[in-house]
Amino acid sequence: MTVAHPGLTVWFTGLSGSGKSTLSLAVHEQLCATGYRVQLLDGDEVRLFLSRDLGFSKQDRDENIRRIGYVAELLSKNGVITLVSAISPYRSARDAVRARIPNFLEVYVNAPVEECERRDVKGLYKRARAGEIKSFTGVSDPYEPPQGPELECRTDLETVPQSIERVIDAILVRVG
To answer: Which of the following is catalytic: 16, 24, 76, 88?
Structure first.
């Protein structure tokens, strides 16, 4: 049975390896299992299917976030809890999306870059430090942390289940 609820965009932002995808996928699974209408927009998948034409310049990253935000806005308007998992390194791009979506919950998935590098199964940080990847967020390109996120998950200090529970609780306050 589907639960009737208002739409909501939950925007997971943080460095590569901070835990955005892990948390958003687990939250997606739990909400779906209890009957909520939920859609997950993962940054890597969006890059593959919606933003394939974009690179990693600031302009292209901002355009990628604008596109993700537009899709999230449409879904949220139609009563879907939309979970966005995207590095979204620039505060101004995130704030522009926030301004367009009435029911918006920003989750800062915070882990120090050293911890993110330790978790890096794809070897992206190593390649970035070797100069093989240009404009890599947290190494050669900036990450601007949110100034007032509704929720901050310190994934280096709390367990994954603790973070998931906190995110679910924050969502349920918004949608019932």
So the answer is: 88
Q: Does residue 1 belong to any structural domain of this protein?
A: no
In a 3-state reduction of DSSP, which class is residue 117?
A: helix
Q: Is 16 a catalytic residue?
A: no
Q: Is residue 133 part of a domain?
A: yes
**Structural domain total, the chain:** 1
Instruction: Say how many C-beta atoms besides its own lie within 10 A of residue 23's C-beta.
Output: 24
The partner residues of 59 in beta bridges, in order of sequence, read none
Domain harbouring 147, CATH code: 3.40.50.300
On whether the CB atoms of residues 38 and 32 are closer than 8 A, the answer is: yes
Does an H or E element contain 10, and which?
strand 8-13
Q: Is the pLDDT of residue 3 over 80?
A: no
Average of per-residue pLDDT across 17-26 = 96
Answer yes or no: is pLDDT of 64 > 70: yes
